[in-house]
Specification:
By secondary structure, the chain is mainly β. The chain has a domain at about 1-30 and about 65-210: TolB, C-terminal domain (Neuraminidase). About 10% of the residues lie in helices and about 45% in strands. The chain has 3 helices and 29 strands. It has helices spanning about 5-20, 25-30, 265-270; strands at about 35-40, 45-50, 60-65, 70-75, 80-85, 90-95, 100-105, 110-120, 125-130, 135-145, 150-155, 160-165, 170-175, 195-200, 210, 220-230, 235-240, 250-255, 260, 280-285, 285-290, 295-300, 310, 315-320, 325-330, 335, 340-345, 350, 355. Strands 1, 2, 3, 28 and 29 form a 5-stranded antiparallel beta sheet that branches. A 4-stranded antiparallel beta sheet has the order 4-5-6-7, with no helix packed on it. A 4-stranded antiparallel beta sheet has the order 8-9-10-11, with no helix packed on it. A hairpin with a 7-residue loop joins strand 22 and strand 23. The longest helix has 19 residues, at about 5-20. The protein is globular, with a radius of gyration of 19 Å.
Amino acid sequence: MGPMDRRTFIRSAGAAFVAALLPRAAEAIDQTDVVFGTAYMTGDGAFGAALLDDKGRTLTRIRLPARGHEVVFSTADRAVVFARRPGTFAMAFSTIGKDEPLVFSSPADRHFYGHGAFSPDGKLLYATENDFEQARGAIGIYDATDRFRRIGEYSSYGTGPHDIHVSGDTLAVANGGLETHPDFGRTKLNVAAMQPSLAFVDRHDGSLIARHFLASDLSKVSIRHMVGDKSGRLFIAGQHEGNPARIVPLLARWHPDTGLSPLPVADNAIARMKGYIGSIAINGDQLAVTSPKSGVMLRFDPGDPSRVEITEQPKICGLAAMGPDFAATSMVGTMQLADGETRKTELLWDNHLSGV
């Protein structure tokens, strides 16, 4: 989006957005245990982001200029939604309508990968980006206290960085290993030579702390999404770019004492995912993953991954912890709640569901 497009968009969406939020969203956020954020599509091809309450009801809708991907929260009243790869916009907004939304962009030679994470104090936003002319991954650094002005970048120490996780002074980056260029849309240009990795980067100076690779026979498993638990472990979800007939581990775990290793989920359960994990979430001792390609959610204790509970829901993908269980959204407009209820809307939910 150019400057004129951004101004036009803010004029048309900003005031209506604030008016729609107050006082309903502020009151709902105060009264519910959790508020969720997610991108959506409509049946007529429009795009937006929405806030949902713990009953799956839409608190507000925010119009986006193109398809969104993940919503990340800094605090309960502040969030950013990123464009889907290879989009170049992101929108920061107050969840309770304190001010108008702010659209900001990646540099001209970069695009976003749809994910980001705030520093622990909420002052900085780290965004995964593609330096597409150099075919290298970057972590863009944006000042959340100064209208998300881009103040620098670090290397992601890999190609195709997707998800990013902040833990204290460290950034964990899921380098998917796939080279893309906006001239070719979402086409993957280097599948034969891809080299996915999990990189740990010092968030203060950008130096590489450590980098981990899967075994060579798993080099076609693109590391995409991850979630951490209270013990310091990371659980990593992948998407297989190799022979679709071959069943390969799509999940791995990382621990500072043991490094990165596949999570031994039963082959018959992994086969149900059709080589694609769209989202991952953890809740206590339960890990859950979804595949919109197969309409399946797997839930299990990562300490005993041989016992897997399987749930079927067409196009299920978005996933977040909710109470003792999980909430899950689908690309056909349903939301499964922790109490087993399913709520249906006219909005088609996108890949991710974030809770705060």
